[in-house]
Write a structure and sequence with these properties.
Helix content: 10-25%
Order of helices and strands: HHHHEEHEEHEEHEEEEHEEH
Structural class: alpha+beta
Strand content: 15-25%
Number of domains: 1
Largest sheet: 7 strands, mixed
Bound molecules: the ligand Nc1nc2c(c(=O)[nH]1)N[C@H]1C(S)=C(S)[C@@H](COP(=O)(O)O)O[C@H]1N2, molybdenum atom
CATH architecture: Alpha-Beta Complex
Length: about 325
Amino acid sequence: MLIRTRDTSAPAASEITPEPIYRDRRRFLRQAGQFAVAGAAAGWLRTVPAGVTDVLDLESSPRRAKFSTDEPLTAEDSVTTYNNFYEFGTGKTDPAQYADALVTEPWSVTVAGACEKPGTYALEDVLRGLAPEERIYRLRCVEGWSMVIPWLGVPLAALLKRYQPTSAARYVAFQTLYDPDQMRGQRRSVLEWPYREGLRMDEAMHPLTIMAVGLYGKPLPNQNGAPLRLVVPWKYGFKSIKSIVRIEFTETEPPTTWNMMAPREYGFYANVNPQVDHPRWSQSRERRIGKLFRQDTLMFNGYGEQVASLYRGLDLRRNY
Ligand SMILES: Nc1nc2c(c(=O)[nH]1)N[C@H]1C(S)=C(S)[C@@H](COP(=O)(O)O)O[C@H]1N2
Ligand SMILES: [Mo]
């Protein structure tokens, strides 16, 4: 048996996937997918059961250029091995090592609170009929690193509208699965489980906000939050909650994990803001994974033109 060892510390610049290679590989995967479908129809090849891909065609999702950055992508290998997912441990390589234990099929999502259609829905029913898109977004972690990731997902607005939120819905709250048997990190109380996040309704319905179901042309790896996770590109990474099992429309601002843990350090809004430092470190610069030199962090992570209007009149120093 051949054992391949690799350095799991910060990836080198050479690991960045050149765009043409990634494009070619998507084409290859698409063709391989058609081959598998043809094989299944002929009865001599079983398709791999996969809840998300049963109802969404990820391989031919169009890229939404209008919403995507053209900066070089972070290497797929880094995106899937350098993670924050405390349910599987606090180390950056713990999620890739331990998230295999999570069973994502079957999966269901409970929708509750101020809406006309509350209930517990199979993941397939949550997603069926929605049109997935590829969005290349910057992800800026509050700890000071960033990545550029080709997500596959659906606009969160389209998903939420299915449940007909009422006028009482001013916020939407999300929860991650709680299951210490599958999520070994939950056997210790490093955070108050389950992980919770929330958005103001206008942030949730903003066209930039997506519910991601894949990356790099494929379904999400468990360590990145399978089977569905939020991506809110103008906010620090911790707002992008993974492996969601509950969505609740609320009238008041919902409690959120990092804010409960350290309210002076992590606010509800968590908009990327180079002018407001974390109490223990500066937020003015970031290390793009795979690059040698640090670079300036942009207001709203570079999405200011699209989202600054949401916060007109709000003191961003107080509402960090
Ligand atoms: N449930 C859950 N969601 C989570 C986290 C977590 O620990 N648990 N970490 C957050 C943080 S701090 C970041 S930076 C991003 C990382 O996403 P990625 O690993 O897909 O890059 O996930 C966020 N979502
Ligand atoms: Mo983060």
